[in-house]
Amino acid sequence: MKYILLSILLIGAINSGIKAQDSGRKIPAVEIKSLDSSPFNTGDIQNDGKPIIISFWATWCLPCLKEIDKVNEFIDDFDNVSVVLINEDRPGDKAKVKSFIRSRRYPVDDNYHIIFDFDKKLSRYFNAQPIPLTLILKNNKIVYRKRGFFVGDEIDLKKQLGRALND
């Protein structure tokens, strides 16, 4: 019985489809902080009908880092796509996160954002634990949801991103 329950929990944890409650779900307007400590309103995350990759991550999460590295390898192949990395580290680790991002040379710019979710409003809204949780939004609605990351998952992510671009 214990193994059956564990199996059910694991299957739920690696769910890669859009859940019924996510279908068409919009990102809420929440005031949070960007990497440079300026205010960032998630209600402003829109890209004129172009897809946005949103990933909940932390510096201590190895699958998160592998996923970000893979996304960074292919993101330049897609025009008009934004990336929003929502950091889940503790508020006291902000300097460590900034140093980490600089050392990894994440391409932070107008289409690549790193924001902090210190009060966990977004994490709770999207039930983002455990991380990584990756979403693709188009027209401010979720069109793809994937929890966890294994090398090779980037193939499906690229496919879903291409599909979102062409829809």
Walkthrough of the structure:
The protein is α/β, with parallel strands linked by helices and 167 residues long. The protein has a single domain, classed as Glutaredoxin (3-Layer(aba) Sandwich). Helices cover 33% and strands 22% of the residues. The chain is built from five helices and seven strands, in the order αβββαβαβαββα. The chain has a seven-stranded mixed β-sheet with strand order 2-1-5-4-3-6-7, covered by helices on one side. Helix 2 links the parallel strand 3 and strand 4. The radius of gyration is 15 Å and the shape is globular. The N terminus is likely disordered.
Structural class: alpha/beta
Q: Could you tell me the strand content as a percent range?
A: 15-25%
The termini sit apart by 44 Å
Shape: globular
CATH class: Alpha Beta
CATH superfamily: Glutaredoxin
| Main beta sheet | 7 strands, mixed
Order of strands across the main sheet: 2-1-5-4-3-6-7
Topology, number of strands: 7
Number of helices: 5
What is the N-to-C succession of helices and strands? HEEEHEHEHEEH
Please tell me the total number of domains: 1
- The CATH topology name reads Glutaredoxin
> Using only CA atoms, what is the Rg?
15 Å
Note poorly predicted spans.
1-21
Which bin fits the share of residues in helices? 25-40%
CATH architecture heading = 3-Layer(aba) Sandwich
The overall average pLDDT, rounded, is: 81
